[in-house]
Amino acid sequence: MKKFEEVKNLVASLEADADKFYNKANSAAGTRVRKGMQDLKNLAQAIRLEVQETKNKATK
């Protein structure tokens, strides 16, 4: 559950930069959003693996 909280916090932290990029055409903010989204992707993959591992252990 800790990693899920990290996902929520990461998305919330990207909100300001997303606003700057989309509404104020700040390209540096776009770079930060892209990096944050890559981090989000990696974190989501880690959660997927953790869930699958837990699921597999429960069925044995």
Compact overview of the structure:
Belongs to the histone H1/H5 family. HCT subfamily. This protein is mostly helical and 60 residues long.
What oligomeric state best describes the polypeptide chains here?
A: single chain
In DSSP terms (H or I, runs of 4 or more residues), the helix count works out at: 2
Shape: elongated
- Uncertain spans: none
Radius of gyration: 15 Å
User: Could you give the order of the helices and strands?
Assistant: HH
InterPro entries: Hc1 (IPR010886)
GO molecular function: DNA binding; structural constituent of chromatin
Family: Belongs to the histone H1/H5 family. HCT subfamily.
Protein name: Histone H1
Description:
By secondary structure, the chain is an all-alpha fold. It has helices spanning 2-24, 27-58. 92% of the residues lie in helices and 0% in strands. It is elongated and about 55 Å long. The two termini are 22 Å apart. One of its GO terms (molecular function) is structural constituent of chromatin. Might have a role analogous to that of eukaryotic histone proteins. It holds the Pfam family Hc1. Belongs to the histone H1/H5 family. HCT subfamily.
